[in-house]
């Protein structure tokens, strides 16, 4: 299948960070605010999941969310995830079939870590899934401001600059 066929078949739509997505699962039950860290404003679903697709020329711009996010590889080429963390600095993780090196079929993005994603190999696409717990809410989503990110991580300006339009 081509990326366009997958987008049509799975009814994916453009994501604000780049690429395409569709929510697949949103638990019926909630975690009440009294049981959540105070960084969450209101109750959250137990868990949510989406399909996420990058095609040639697409990237996921630097962003962060309040929950841990688990990425799963389903089809196509590998995805390079670029992480910026105050304690660990800059890291890359490979999501995909290249499990003999530093790749993995699943990659965890810790809560509140800035990250961006791109295809590892051009002339390809990648279909992934993202599972979030406590469940994703757009109130917990923050697209990075380029100037603020450069101020916070000036030593990684070459990486940061690649993920803004």
Describe the structure.
- This protein has a single domain (about 5-165), classed as Jelly Rolls (Sandwich), CATH 2.60.120.
- Strand 8 and strand 9 (about 90-95) form a beta hairpin.
- The chain starts with a helix and ends in a 5-residue tail after the last helix.
- By secondary structure, it is mainly β.
- The chain contains 3 helices and 14 strands.
- The mean pLDDT is about 95.
- Strands 1-2-5-13-7-11 form a 6-stranded antiparallel sheet. A 6-stranded mixed sheet has the order 10-9-8-12-6-14, with no helix packed on it. The protein has a two-stranded antiparallel sheet with strand order 3-4.
- The radius of gyration is 16 Å and the shape is globular.
- It has helices at about 5-10, 145-150, 155-160, and strands spanning about 15, 20-25, 30, 45, 50-55, 60-65, 70-75, 80-85, 90-95, 105, 105-110, 115-120, 125-135, 140-145.
